[in-house]
């Protein structure tokens, strides 16, 4: 009697095994999608709020000033060589005017020597305007000399323009993963539901074990092929 019950339940065991197989494949697919969603986006770090965290010496401050000038509308911004720069650290252009910039990263106010260096170095680079930029302030004598020679002084340059911080971080490789075709999976589910009904009918119609085994293998291979095709198409769109 026990053997007869097991025999009668055999198709349901096989159907259960096929359903578990299908569920595991679907779970693997959606796990792959979740992992892709987590790893697909790479945000650019926000711009630092000021120089304390990014500037440690005068040379790095020159590059900071160069970026500051770019952000404030200057073009053709370049940093000169570290040695024999004739007192000019950065070159920039705005509205057709070429600027020679002297950068001073000081812990105290900048004196008139920096203004003198800027005035002397500007003609060497073919610049018509000299500029001195510092993270600090200028002494009264430096301001007087700058006014007499038409030198632009920019004190307290220790932060990039505020508009930069109001911008949202840029996203790299922004690409939404291709959604799995729901209609295709509905068709597959219907196909296997019909196959299960057909399998039960064939089982009780007198097919031998070998024929039923071949039937199960064919059905499983068809499912595997459909799943592989869907995964390949999905990966091509990543």
Write structural notes for this entry:
With 238 residues, the protein is of the alpha/beta class. The chain has 2 domains: 75 residues; 121 residues, Trna Endonuclease, Chain: A, domain 1 (3-Layer(aba) Sandwich). The protein is 53% helix and 13% strand. The strands form 2 sheets. The chain has a 5-stranded mixed β-sheet with strand order 2-3-4-5-6. Strand 3 and strand 4 form a beta hairpin. Helix 1 runs parallel beside helix 7. The longest helix is centred in the N-terminal third of the chain and has 38 residues. It holds the Pfam family Mrr_cat. It comes from Candidatus Eubacterium faecipullorum. GO terms for molecular function: DNA binding; restriction endodeoxyribonuclease activity.
Main sheet specs: 5 strands, mixed
Mean pLDDT level:
70
Strand content: 5-15%
Q: Can you tell me the number of structural domains?
A: 2
Number of helices: 7
Give the terminus-to-terminus CA distance: 56 Å
Tally of strands: 7
What gross morphology would you assign?
Answer: rod-shaped
If classified by CATH, what would the architecture of the largest domain be? 3-Layer(aba) Sandwich
Radius of gyration: 37 Å
Across the major sheet, the strand order is 2-3-4-5-6
The poorly predicted ranges are: 1-9, 36-53, 163-178
The helicity comes to: 40-55%
CATH topology term of the largest domain: Trna Endonuclease, Chain: A, domain 1
Name the structural class: alpha/beta
Order of helices and strands: HEHEEEHEHEHEHH
- CATH first level of the largest domain: which class? Alpha Beta
């Amino acid at each position: 009697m026990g053997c007869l019950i097991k025999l009668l339940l055999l198709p349901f065991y096989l159907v259960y095994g096929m359903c578990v197989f299908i569920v595991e494949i679907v779970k693997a697919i959606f796990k792959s999608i979740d992992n892709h969603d987590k790893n697909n986006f790479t945000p650019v770090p926000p711009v630092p709020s000021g120089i304390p965290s990014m500037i440690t010496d005068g040379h790095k401050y020159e590059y900071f000033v160069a970026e500051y000038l770019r952000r404030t509308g200057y073009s053709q911004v370049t940093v000169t060589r570290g040695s024999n720069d004739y007192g000019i650290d950065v070159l920039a252009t705005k509205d057709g005017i070429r600027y020679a910039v002297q950068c001073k990263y000081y812990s105290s106010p900048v004196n008139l020597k920096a203004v003198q260096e800027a005035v002397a170095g500007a003609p060497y680079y073919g610049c018509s305007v000299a500029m001195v930029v510092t993270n600090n302030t200028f002494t009264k004598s430096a301001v007087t000399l700058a006014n007499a020679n038409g030198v632009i002084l920019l004190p307290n340059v220790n932060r990039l323009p505020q508009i930069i911080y109001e911008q949202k971080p840029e996203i790299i490789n922004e690409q939404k993963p291709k959604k799995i075709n729901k209609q295709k999976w509905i068709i597959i589910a219907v196909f296997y539901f019909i196959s299960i009904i057909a399998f039960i009918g064939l089982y009780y119609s007198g097919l031998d074990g070998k024929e039923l085994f071949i039937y199960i293998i064919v059905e499983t291979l068809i499912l595997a092929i459909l799943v592989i095709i869907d995964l390949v198409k999905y990966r091509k769109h990543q």
